């Protein structure tokens, strides 16, 4: 399996228009089949007010590319050599007159969600290095919330810090995903088997809309939508245990297993998603019918041979 290496080519003088999705030179034929890094429906996030930044004396948080780039150059973080950059999928809701367009914490959360979605969709190239100023320019915000979001992703193991350059997308392989799946099985399966004997059928039936949402997203080929709905389904199931720490740990593991590894074809992953989504509905049917043998069998199939 070939892994994509860091990108060292200079960034173009102007960003490509949204919706074209043309692959950069030198990526090869496989790159053209990947999801486009500039989705047609992308809408930039609103930039933070410059006046407020000047009043706070934080010139490096200016939304414009000039102020942000100057601040990052002073910190030694280069802005050249950037691969194609993802854009957020939706803008924040408008605020009432006389109030800030968006709070900084909200910007950081939106950027983090957008970057996680880009990881799931394979829009961030494994091995490539992205700088906070260039990503901020792509999102239409300052470098600061982007850097904070990337630091959170570094804690989650999705990226690694490259001093004076930015953040490198971690290259993942099938073995790592298999290991994460094994851990998920060790955490989730015993809990679900116990819940199968204690939770009434009516409670399981309440989860039907979540299972149906995974089927719709998988059938549409929406990797990001599937990851979100699949995560919501598993979280709802485990929440019935009443163990908040277990839910938090399982939720983090689940998010990491949905990052698309390098070299995995989008089309094949879509086929796998459709099969996985169908297992959710079948699992609910078995839980409602209190068919414990079928529940165990379905869990083995859902998690693979890692299931105890």
Question: Could you outline the blueprint of secondary structure elements for this entry?
Answer:
Layout: H1 50-56, H2 65-75, H3 104-121, E1 129-130, H4 132-139, H5 143-155, E2 159-162, E3 166-169, H6 174-196, H7 201-205, H8 208-219, H9 223-239, H10 244-257, H11 266-288, H12 292-303
Antiparallel strand pairs: 1-3, 2-3
Textual characterization of the structure:
Helix 3 (104-121) crosses helix 5 (143-155) and helix 8 (208-219) packs antiparallel against helix 9. The protein is built from twelve helices and three strands; from the N terminus they run αααβααββααααααα. The relative contact order is 0.12. A hairpin with a 3-residue loop joins strand 2 (159-162) and strand 3. The chain is 53% helix and 3% strand. It is mainly alpha-helical. It has two domains: 33-169, Winged helix-like DNA-binding domain superfamily/Winged helix DNA-binding domain (Arc Repressor Mutant, subunit A, Orthogonal Bundle), CATH 1.10.10.10; 174-306, Four Helix Bundle (Hemerythrin (Met), subunit A) (Up-down Bundle), CATH 1.20.120.530. The protein has helices spanning 50-56, 65-75, 104-121, 132-139, 143-155, 174-196, 201-205, 208-219, 223-239, 244-257, 266-288, 292-303; strands spanning 129-130, 159-162, 166-169. The protein has a three-stranded antiparallel beta sheet with strand order 1-3-2. The model is unreliable at 1-76 and 88-102 (pLDDT under 50).
**Strand count, sense and closure of the main sheet?**
3 strands, antiparallel
Give the CATH architecture of the largest domain. Orthogonal Bundle
Bin the strand percentage.
Answer: under 5%
Number of helices: 12
Identify low-pLDDT runs.
1-76, 88-102
List the secondary-structure elements in sequence, H or E. Answer: HHHEHHEEHHHHHHH
Q: Say what the CATH topology of the largest domain is.
A: Arc Repressor Mutant, subunit A
Structural class: mainly alpha
Query: How much helix, percentage-wise, in residues?
Result: 40-55%
| Main CATH class of the largest domain | Mainly Alpha
């Amino acid at each position: 399996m070939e892994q994509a290496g860091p990108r060292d080519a200079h960034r173009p003088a102007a960003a490509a228009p949204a919706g074209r999705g043309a692959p950069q030179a030198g990526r090869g034929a496989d790159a053209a089949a990947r999801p486009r890094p500039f989705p047609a429906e992308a809408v930039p996030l609103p930039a933070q007010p410059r006046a407020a930044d000047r009043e706070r004396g934080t010139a490096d948080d200016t939304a414009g590319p000039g102020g942000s780039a100057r601040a990052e150059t002073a910190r030694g973080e280069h802005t050249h050599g950037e691969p194609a950059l993802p854009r957020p999928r939706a803008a924040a809701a408008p605020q009432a007159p006389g109030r800030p367009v968006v709070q900084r914490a909200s910007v950081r959360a939106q950027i983090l969600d957008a970057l996680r979605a880009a990881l799931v969709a394979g829009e961030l190239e494994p091995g490539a290095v992205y700088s906070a100023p260039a990503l901020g320019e792509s999102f239409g915000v300052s470098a600061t919330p982007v850097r904070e979001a990337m630091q959170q992703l570094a804690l989650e193991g999705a990226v690694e810090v490259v001093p004076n350059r930015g953040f490198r997308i971690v290259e993942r392989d099938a073995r790592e995903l298999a290991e994460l799946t094994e851990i998920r099985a060790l955490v989730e399966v015993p809990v679900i088997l116990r819940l199968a004997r204690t939770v009434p059928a009516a409670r399981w039936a309440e989860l039907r809309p979540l299972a149906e949402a995974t089927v719709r997203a998988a059938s549409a080929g929406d990797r990001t939508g599937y990851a979100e709905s699949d995560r919501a389904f598993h979280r709802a199931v485990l929440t019935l245990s009443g163990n908040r720490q277990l839910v938090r740990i399982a939720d983090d593991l689940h998010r990491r297993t949905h990052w698309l590894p390098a070299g995995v074809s989008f089309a094949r992953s879509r086929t796998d998603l459709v099969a996985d989504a169908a297992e959710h509905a079948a699992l609910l049917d078995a839980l409602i019918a209190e068919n414990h043998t079928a529940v165990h069998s379905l869990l083995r199939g859902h998690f693979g041979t890692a299931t105890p």
